[in-house]
Amino acid sequence: MMDGASEQSRRVEGALGHISVMEREVVRLVTAQAVEQGRPLRCVDLTLGLAGHARAVAEILPAGSQVIGFDRDPAALERAKARMSEPGIEGIQTLFIQASFAEAEECLRARGMVPVDFVLFDLGLNSTQLDAGERGFSLMSSGPLDMRMDPEGGGVTAGDLLNTLDAERLADIFWLLGEERYSRRIARALVKGRPWQSTLEVAEAISRAVGGRKGAKIHPATRCFQALRMAVNDELGAIRAGLPAAGRILRAGGVMAVISFHSLEHRLVKTFFRAGARRCLCPEEQPVCTCRFEPIFRWEQRREQRP
To answer: Domains (ranges, CATH) in the chain?
Structure first.
C-alpha cells in the first residue's frame, strides 16, 4: 500500500512535468518515525515545490498528523495547495507558508508548532520553474532576466547583476557559485555587450564567448545561469541559515533529510552534519576527552544516496 501510494504520487506529478527525487527514501524515513512514535506526527517540507514529497508523506501518515509546507515561490505554493487538496488525505492537517526555509523557525514558533518530528530539504529548482520562460530561469527560451524565486518580493534580479556589476565581480559569481572555468572570459564578454534584456541573448553571448565545446554534456551557459540564480536568491546563505534552524525545531529523536544536487550544496550539508555529529571538541593532540560534548545529530547512514 505504501509503495502504491508513492507510485501514484509520482504519476500525478509526472503529469505536471516534475518528478520528486528520492520519494521512496523519504517515505521510508517518515514511515519509520510513525512506527517508532505510534502517534500522529508533525512533518515539515521546507522546499514544498509541487508537493510531491509532501503528498506522498501525507498518504502514509496516521490520522491527526500535520504536514506543513514552505516555499518562496507563490506560483509553486498555489499548485501545491491544489495538489494537497485532492482526495485521499482527509485526516491530515495541512498548512502552507510562503517563506524561505531560513525563516521557517520563526514562522513555526510564532504559531506554537515546535517541536517537529520530520524536516525535509529538497534543494534546487523544480522543472516547472525551468520550463516557465517568463521566470528567467531557462536558458533555452527567451524571457526576462529575473530569476527571483519570489518575483513579487523585491530584491535584485539577474538583469541587475549582469548590467551593473564590473567584470571582476561577475567573474567571481560565475566561478564561486557556478564553478565555471571560463568565468573571466565570459564576464568580460558580458560587460562589453551590455545592456542585456533577455535570457536567450545572454545564453547565446556566453556560448560565443567560450566557443564550441565538442562533446559537452550541458549547454555552455548552464553554470553561469546556475550561479546567477544562486546569487539572486542567496541560496547558499539560506542553506547556511536554514540547516541549523531546522535542527533547532526538531524534537529529540526527530529526523532531518536533505536532498542536494551539486557540490556547493553538498559541502555545506556535509560540513553541517559532520559538525553536529562530532563527539569531542578537544584538541586532536589531547589523549583523553575532557569536553563532555554531546553530539547534536546521529548519522544513520554515512554513505551518500544517489537518486
So the answer is: 2-127+236-277 (3.40.50.150), 139-233 (1.10.150.170)
